[in-house]
Amino acid sequence: MMTYDEDVMRRLKRMEGQVRGVLRMMEEGKNCKDVITQLSAVRSAADKAMAYIVASNLEHCILEEQEKGQDSGKLVKEAVELLLKSR
Fold first, then answer.
1. pLDDT of residue 2
2. What Gene3D superfamilies does the database record attribute to this sequence (predicted)?
3. One digit per residue, pLDDT tens: the chain, 87 residues?
4. I need a labelling partner for 73 at 20 to 30 A (CA). Which of 8, 41, 58, 82 fits?
5. Which residues contact 12 (CB under 8 A, 6 or more apart)?
6. Cα 42 to Cα 69: distance, rounded to the nearest angstrom
């Protein structure tokens, strides 16, 4: 089972606050450009969080595979595919 550290949880909580801020901007009728700018920031934060989670998981799995004396190449390929799918 994968465990998630406090850094990734903080990132997601920050994103949650950003989304609430975007909703508030929309309720207040703020400029479309400003709303899109904030949504872009949320998307960027989500991309970084996903990359962080995949990288952390990959590192953990590679170490496990190496301890077992197994090839970790398949894990790297799966991680790359996961990142590409998330785009």
1. 66
2. Metal-sensitive repressor, helix protomer (1.20.58.1000)
3. 667 888 889 999 999 999 999 999 999 999 999 999 999 999 999 999 988 888 887 777 777 777 788 777 777 778 778 777 776
4. 8
5. 49
6. 40
How many Cβ atoms sit within 10 Å of the Cβ of residue 31? 9
Q: Is the pTM of this model over 0.90?
A: no
* Two tokens, residue 33: 């450009």
Query: In this structure, what token pair is assigned to residue 45?
Result: 């934060």
In angstroms, the CA 66 to CA 8 distance is 25
d(CA 73, CA 60): 14
Do the Cβ atoms of 39 and 22 come closer than 8 Å?
yes
For residue 83, give both structure tokens: 């990142």
For 34, the token pair is 């400003």
Q: Which two tokens stand for residue 31?
A: 């400029």
